């Protein structure tokens, strides 16, 4: 892949009155990549996408597509196309007419239009759908037609506004793979916005996590999952157990955190920020990082043992979900609920609620972030674990 | 399974007659209204139109009334004139009403939108007679506009703006506007904004989006608005009489003359039927041309 950028945003700002929906966002998307913007609803991702499409003018900053500034360029003159959240297929036209709409606007000869429509229908594997009515198609087929309608115009960037949201789970899983495959084949740059982390992680080359109008972190899915840079990303991408506490002491990059609920967990700093004793922090531990053992010894709160964080608790709920099965374990000393993944080997398939477990995880698996007071972040805390 | 079917079978025989009676009772006012006020008078009009008065209380079957219509150029000309003027008035109402409706339905939001809609509605709280007299106050020789033009020095003497075809057209369009705007606003309301955005996004110009997306979507509303406006205009009596003056003959005036002035009920009935056929035929042709069905327009 060469270094050519298809889309670049420079310090983009959009405010509505006093409310700033998009706050100083810069991004660079290389040619031919699948880029996702992931964030909870109301984080400004739709506003950002609509600015890229040209439906909203930015308050400040610049959008550059293939080296050309897009400021003041209306949506029908931009080399980007959008797949709308509810697809926005034209119900007054059949499938072929829907796809031909954009080509006709470019005044191509009819023979060429017919050929392109047939080609793109072939590409989305619906070669015979041309004469069908839009209402005759199933959800997944409409999805493909909506994408075909945009792709046939060979845009520099294809914008997708949560197009999988309306599909049922099975179909959504299927379409995820199909979309990634399609993007790989056509090589068009995709910008995909979603609130579903699984969609973003599965499909993307790069993901930007957005919160309150800002990018929290931009990186590969692996990077976001294993090296979240902020507490928000750690809580939002993937599931995490979360504790809050205060740093007691720092020893060789390890922070000893005494928890608000009681007990001590050792962790490392999640980002470049150096923690100091007395800092209030949030600790995040992934459920699959926790090793479980059956244990009937006396109950202990969270503490360090042989360089491992250890705590014991009683199994409260078993959440069986095939390979993704979990158990919710209650720390009897503090009342904190911890979610752990059950090993896929089936070693704990006979686990019953009420049994006592010993949980342990490495110091490097617990990531600590200096907490901003008052900001509530999602994660598998007490209230969200159920 | 079979027991279930049996029970459901007995239930059916119990409930269906009850349902039928209920439906019938609910339909009764409508049926009575249709029969007593529409079908019965029309049947009577039909028989009256098909007879000829020979002497006192002496009648015979005859097509004379219809023949008279086709042989007398005045009737025939008035008939065609009324139809053409009504079509033109409907078109003008549509051309003015469509942007207004689009603005109300799509461009403006919230309180202002309701205010605009109310402003279209409020003139119709006043009776048609009063509204037409309003126009007369504005347009007559000694009226507001004439006086203003004289005061401004644009004209030397009083100008008569009443009693011309143009005035008549203004009056007809004004009277019909609401009946065009209401169906158009409701049909444009159902147009998803993202369809318009998708049109722009795919490179469409404002004109092509209007022609290929907005108008096809609004077609049922356009058709129903046009039918209502056309019917109202064709059957209007007050506006042509008051604003059109002596030269602007309207077919309803002819019918009125036959019934009231000439006591010629036979001929009046025939004219009434011809008007009914005329309006039905034009609506039929209009629906065929716009590829709509009558069922679509009442959706």
CATH superfamily of the largest domain in chain A: P-loop containing nucleotide triphosphate hydrolases
The coarse overall form of chain A would be elongated
Can you name the CATH architecture of chain B? Orthogonal Bundle
Percent in helix of chain A: 10-25%
The overall pLDDT of chain B, averaged over residues, is 87
Query: What's the pLDDT, averaged over the residues of chain A?
Result: 87
The coarse overall form of chain B would be globular
Q: For the CA atoms, what is the radius of gyration of chain A?
A: 25 Å
Q: Per DSSP, what share of the residues of chain B sits in E-state strands of 2 or more residues?
A: under 5%
**What's the CATH first level of chain B?**
Mainly Alpha
Q: What is the succession of H and E elements of chain A?
A: EEEHEEEHHHEHEHEEHHEEEEEEEEEEE
How many separate helices of chain B?
A: 13
InterPro entries (chain A): AAA+_ATPase, ABC_SmlMolc_Importer, ABC_transporter-like_ATP-bd, ABC_transporter-like_CS, Mo/tungstate-bd_C_term_dom, P-loop_NTPase, Transp-assoc_OB_typ2
Keywords (chain A): ATP-binding, Nucleotide-binding, Transport
Pfam families (chain A): ABC_tran, TOBE_2
GO molecular function, one term (chain A): ATP binding
């Amino acid at each position: 892949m060469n270094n050519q950028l298809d889309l670049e945003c420079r310090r983009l700002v959009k405010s509505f009155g006093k409310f700033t929906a998009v706050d100083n966002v810069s991004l660079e998307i290389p040619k031919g990549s699948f880029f996702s913007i992931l964030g909870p609803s109301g984080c400004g991702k739709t506003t950002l996408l609509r600015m890229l499409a040209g439906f909203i003018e930015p308050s400040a900053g610049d959008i550059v597509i293939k080296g050309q500034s897009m400021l003041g360029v209306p949506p029908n003159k931009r080399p980007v196309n959008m797949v709308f959240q509810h697809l926005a297929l034209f119900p007054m036209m059949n499938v072929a007419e829907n796809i031909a709409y954009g080509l006709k606007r470019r005044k191509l000869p009819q023979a060429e239009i017919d050929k392109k429509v047939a080609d793109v229908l072939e590409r989305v594997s619906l070669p015979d759908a041309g004469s069908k009515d839009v209402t005759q198609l199933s959800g997944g087929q409409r999805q493909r037609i909506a994408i075909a309608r945009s792709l046939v115009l060979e845009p520099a960037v294809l914008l997708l506004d949560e197009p999988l949201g309306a599909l049922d789970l099975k179909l959504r899983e299927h379409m995820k793979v199909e979309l990634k495959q399609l993007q790989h084949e056509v090589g068009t740059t995709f910008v995909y916005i979603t609130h579903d982390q699984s969609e973003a992680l599965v499909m993307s080359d790069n993901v930007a996590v957005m919160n309150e109008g800002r990018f929290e972190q931009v990186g590969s899915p692996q990077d976001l999952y294993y090296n979240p840079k902020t507490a928000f990303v750690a809580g939002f991408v993937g599931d995490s157990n979360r504790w809050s506490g205060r740093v007691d002491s720092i020893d060789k990059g390890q922070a000893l955190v005494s928890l608000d609920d009681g007990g001590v967990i050792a962790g490392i700093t999640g980002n470049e920020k150096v923690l100091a004793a007395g800092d209030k922090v949030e600790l995040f531990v992934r459920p699959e990082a926790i090793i479980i053992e059956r244990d009937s010894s006396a109950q202990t709160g969270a503490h360090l043992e042989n360089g491992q964080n250890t705590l014991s608790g009683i199994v409260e709920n078993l959440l069986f979900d095939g390979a993704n099965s979990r158990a919710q374990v209650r720390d009897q000393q503090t009342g904190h609920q911890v979610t752990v993944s059950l090993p896929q080997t089936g070693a704990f398939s006979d686990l019953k609620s009420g049994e006592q477990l010993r949980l342990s995880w490495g110091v490097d698996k617990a990531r600590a972030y200096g907490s901003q007071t008052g900001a509530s972040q999602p994660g598998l805390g007490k209230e969200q674990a159920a | 399974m079979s027991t279930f079917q049996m029970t459901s079978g007995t239930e059916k025989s119990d409930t269906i007659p009850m349902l039928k009676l209920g439906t019938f009772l609910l339909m009764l006012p409508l049926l009575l209204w249709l029969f007593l006020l529409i079908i019965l008078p029309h049947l009577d009009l039909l028989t009256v139109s098909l007879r000829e008065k020979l002497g006192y209380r002496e009648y015979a079957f005859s097509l004379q009334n219809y023949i008279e219509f086709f042989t007398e150029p005045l009737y025939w000309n008035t008939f065609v004139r009324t139809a053409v003027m009504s079509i033109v008035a409907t078109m003008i109402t549509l051309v003015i009403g469509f942007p207004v409706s689009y603005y109300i339905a799509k461009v403006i939001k919230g309180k202002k939108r309701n205010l605009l809609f109310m402003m279209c509605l409020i003139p119709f709280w006043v009776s048609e007679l009063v509204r037409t007299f309003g126009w007369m106050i504005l347009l007559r020789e000694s009226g507001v506009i004439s006086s203003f033009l004289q005061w401004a020095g644009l004209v030397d003497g009083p100008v008569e703006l009443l009693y011309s075809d143009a005035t008549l057209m203004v009056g007809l369009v004004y009277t019909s506007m609401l009946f065009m705007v209401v169906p158009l606003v409701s049909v444009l309301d159902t147009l998803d904004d993202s369809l318009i955005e998708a049109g722009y996004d795919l490179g469409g110009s404002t004109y092509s989006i209007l022609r290929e997306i907005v108008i096809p979507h609004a077609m049922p509303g356009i058709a129903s608005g046009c039918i209502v406006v056309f019917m109202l205009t064709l059957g209007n009596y007050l506006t042509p009489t008051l604003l059109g003056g002596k030269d602007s003959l309207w077919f309803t005036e002819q019918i009125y003359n036959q019934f009231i002035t000439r006591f010629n009920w036979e001929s009046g009935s025939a004219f009434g039927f011809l008007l009914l056929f005329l309006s039905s035929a034009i609506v039929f042709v209009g629906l065929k041309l716009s590829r709509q069905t009558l069922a679509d327009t009442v959706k």
